[in-house]
Amino acid sequence: MKVFFWYCKDHLYWILFLVFSFLIFSVLCFLYQLDIEILLYGTLLCLFFFLVLIGVDFYHYKKRHDQRIVIQSEAIDQVLNLQDLTLPGREYQALLQKMERARLDAIHQNEEQFKDHMDYFTLWIHQVKLPISAMQLLLEEENLSKEKLKSQLLRINQYTDMVLAYLRMNTSQTDFVFKEINLDDAIRQSIRYFASEFIARNISLSFKETHLFVLSDEKWLVFVIEQLLSNALKYTKQNGQIRIYLQEDHKLIIEDNGIGIQASDLPRIFEKGYTGFNGRTDKKASGLGLYLCKEICQKISCEISIDSKPESYTKVCLKFDQSYKTVR
Questions:
Q1: Which residues form the domain of 214?
Q2: 73, 102, 126 — which closes off a domain?
Q3: 63 and 203 co-located in one domain
Q4: What is the pLDDT of residue 120?
Q5: For position 278, which CATH number holds?
Q6: Is residue 179 helix, strand or coil?
Q7: What pLDDT score was predicted for residue 104?
Q8: Are 269 and 233 within 8 A, CB to CB?
Q9: 182 to each of 188, 207, 214, 216, 225, how far by Cα in Å?
Q10: Residue 169 placed within a domain
Q11: Residue whose C-alpha is closest to residue 307's, from 241, 256, 244, 237
Q12: Looking at the structure, do residues 187 and 68 belong to the same domain, yes or no?
């Protein structure tokens, strides 16, 4: 009964057409004063053929409905490979094939994103365990050094900032707020973050004010500078030097006189998880910091590049987009 109701609803126009035709036929018979028997005979004859047509059509309608019920219990690949379909059936099949491809692409994309997250967090866990282990050893010493504990806590805090940055960077919504900011203020903020590290390791800092305003996101820009300073501190020996200055054509340079980077590692230094020769030797690198810096720089319209010579220097260059001006 339910199927018949939907059949009548789907064929409502044909039923209305039949009723309208009967009314026209009745009006014509009345106008031409035809015998009522002719009207009844013609009406019954038309109604008979109409019911036969409706019966045959409803039979096929019900049959197609039963087929769709069976199809619902079958696998999607069986539905997509059905043969001997009508034109509407083929059109629906093509639509289903397109939807199935989109579904598989979405599944593949989600799996890739999940794999990337798993790879990242696996690296991050190994990285954050190092300062935790170091803190455990420090706590066992008789003469507990607060400065060393602060240094390890600073590393944990930095790794936490890294994972938060990674999660925010991979969301569909972004929290970038672009405005004109004082580059020197962003640099000073990053320097203060590592002030205790500079003092504890007796590393000198030479910072020449840039007197620049840049159009960028302050929070993300500070994060990038902090990562670059962290790397400089990590690979600069005690009593070394780190310099921050402005080069010609308004390029910000963060330079250290540390162990440098092998020439063979430079082309891949921004790849996720790539640690290079120094990282494999030091056993503390995860290959995430520079990868995040590269990704963030692309989003805040800033170009990052690295030049280095082993056992001599490493220069990181940040070149901002056109929207900057010199402070008068």
A1: 176-326
A2: 73
A3: no
A4: 76
A5: 3.30.565.10
A6: strand
A7: 85
A8: no
A9: 10, 15, 7, 10, 14
A10: no
A11: 256
A12: no
Looking at this protein, which amino acid is placed at residue 3? V
Strand order in the sheet with 313-320: 204-207, 241-247, 251-256, 313-320, 302-309
Positive or negative torsion for Cα 170, 172, 175, 178: positive
Q: Is residue 200 part of a domain?
A: yes
Q: Establish if 138 belongs to a structural domain.
A: no
Along the chain (328 residues), what's the average pLDDT of each consecutive run of 10 residues? Answer: 77 78 76 72 77 83 73 60 64 76 87 82 81 85 80 85 80 76 93 89 91 89 93 88 89 92 88 66 65 89 91 92 59
Same structural domain, 203 and 65: no
CA distance 201 to 198: 6
Q: Which residues make beta-bridge pairs with 47? A: none
User: What are the start-end ranges of the H helices in 81-217?
Assistant: 87-140, 146-169, 183-193, 195-200
Of 73, 100, 124, which marks where a domain is finished?
73
Tokens of 222: 């500070």
Position 165 scores a pLDDT of: 81
Pairing status of strand 204-207 against strand 178-182 = unpaired
Contact 296, 216 (CB under 8 A): no
Instruction: Determine the pLDDT at residue 78.
Output: 60
Q: Return the structure tokens found at 276.
A: 């290079």
Answer yes or no: is 215 within a domain: yes
What type of residue is 206? S
**Chain position carrying tokens 């900032």:** 161
The domain tally of the chain equals: 2
64 and 189 fall within a common domain: no
